[in-house]
Amino acid sequence: MATTTRQAPVLPAPSGRAGFGGTLRSEFTKIRSVRSTYWTLLVLLAVSVGIGAAISALSASGWSNTPPADRTPLDATQLSIAALLILGQLVIVVPGALVLTAEYSTGMIRTSLIAMPRRIVIYVAKAVAFAAVALAVSLATAFIAFFLGQSLLASTHQSATLAGHDVLRALVGSALYITLCGLFAFAAAAIIRNTAGTITAMIGLLFVLPVLVNLLPWHNDLVRWLPSSAARAISATVWNSGPQNSHLFSPWDQFAVFAVYTAVLLVVGGILFRKRDA
Amino acid sequence: MIEVRGLTKRYGEVTAVSGLSFDVMPGKVTGFLGPNGAGKTTTMRLILGLDYPNAGTVTIDGKHYASLAYPMREVGALLDARAVHGGRSAYNHLLCLAQTNNLPRKRVGEVLELVGLTEVARKRAKGFSLGMSQRLGIAGTLLGDPKVLMFDEPVNGLDPEGILWIRNLMKALAAEGRTVFVSSHLMSEMQNTADRLIVIGRGRLLAECTMEEFIARSSGQTVRVATPQADQLAKAVAEAGGSAVSGDNGTLIVSGLVAAQVGDLAFEHGVRLHELTVVLASLEAAFMELTADSVEYRAGAEGAQGQPAGPGQPREPREPPQQLAAHGRPGDDGRS
């Protein structure tokens, strides 16, 4: 093949310093240029909307088969997005972890750090780019699942509208919860540096831990400190006094518990990302 | 210029690099040599800030790598051609690198053209052969049009065409006044490309010199003589304190005497000469000698008198006639 001889000034004169803006653009390019992004987010959408529709349909038929006297009020909003919260939280940890672990498994992290050696810039840019994509997809999913669910629940006359009490908070809050789960996985990935390990840890935290805690005699005192309790609180629009909710903080306070956990883990992950050999 | 000072790096119990100091001069191809495991990659990782040293400093034009305003405009480094997300296309891989340093998007197309990957720009990198991956990696190093280029074992696993391409590229880059710092465990490769050498063994500096100095240091310099009166000359050489052994095609290989002495002897003894050539030790031999000594020295005990530089007889600094393949010098790179 022919030799490469290179022409003289090929680049505009530099000004300033490579920083956050360019690195953020770079991280968006990374996210949009691999297939795993599309299939994981497609799975998130399909599972949340599909299973969500099934839950709504089953609830509607259950409602119609229950004698009116035995019926308890439905939280139609929460029902319609339950699949997003329960299953979607597990799906989102995959792209959340992959943002970092795919770079470690392929060695790309070294190439990335050579291009941008200011590691905190990369770390924050990755987190922001991922969070933006995750939030956008979660919001879309929450609204699609909500509208589909409400149409399936219409026969119960319990269905909600966007104007309903706390409905928007539940939808937006749930999307934020999903985003936080992804960010939590991202931070865990900075510490664990391995896809399988990170996903396993996240399933343990979000799925297994609540079950285990539930077995403890004093679980009522612990449940409000679980990360996953944020999902239940933030998605509730019918704040009944049932055993479900009485041990939780108010929706945003319960959400804040998880947000604080995530923030702490992001800081720890950032420090390790900065300090460790790549 | 890359300045390495007192660099030490330990991984757990293992000391990969120990008190290493050297300079990489601008406008030259500097070969970074050492056996596998000598600490070459570690040193490069330390220069680039991928790993943090336990002691010592590295600066590039006086600055730490991480504080360069636009790192890709200063340094283009390729440590591992496979360090790419295989699911990303060549174009997007380069684009995401370019964006971190605010480099224009059209530059991506230019470097793809430069390395001959334009036609596969939209293909995913996982389908690339090693040679193509190497080209992609090099395209990445050229994105920022940097003054310094670093390549770790760039010809490893490449076919002859790929090796030739890399070799010519490095010479061309140095001819443009860039600093090229290239590691290899293959001495023969450096022989054809490097102007200066930095040799390390077990994480320690063994030599930092020009190619000529390095070869002259080795004890392997001999004189090849072709003569119809080989027996007679061999005897005369032995009497004069040298030694002669038979080489290929009836030639004699004389050691212990310089070419002028052999020529004089032949004249005195009326021996006709058809050829009288100074044979420089191959870089391979000189390198083996240097590193073997170092290993022996460091292995301790029996090798008692440590002489890392080898027992070379003091040669005058004047360079002997060049038998080596031409070195790439800035300016003389007309060949393809």
Short description:
The complex is a heterodimer of chains A (278) and B (336). Chain A has 278 residues and is mainly α.
Largest sheet of chain B: 6 strands, mixed
Instruction: Report the structural category of chain B.
Output: alpha/beta
Strand content of chain A: under 5%
Task: List segments of chain A where confidence is low: pLDDT < 50 over at least 5 consecutive residues.
Answer: none
Rg of chain A, rounded, reads 22 Å
Number of strands of chain A: 0
Largest protein interface, residues of each chain: A-B, 46 and 55 residues
Shape of chain B: elongated
Helix content of chain A: over 70%
Q: In total, how many beta strands of chain B? A: 13
Number of helices of chain B: 11
What is the CA–CA distance across the termini of chain A?
35 Å
Shape of chain A: elongated
Task: Give the oligomer, counting copies of the same chain as homo and different chains as hetero.
Answer: heterodimer
How far from one another are the termini of chain B?
27 Å
- Stretches of chain B where pLDDT is under 50 for at least 5 consecutive residues are 296-336
Per DSSP, the total helix count of chain A is 12
**Strand count, sense and closure of the main sheet of chain A?**
none
Tell me, rounded to a whole number, the average pLDDT of chain A: 92
Radius of gyration of chain B: 23 Å
Which whole number gives the mean pLDDT of chain B? 84
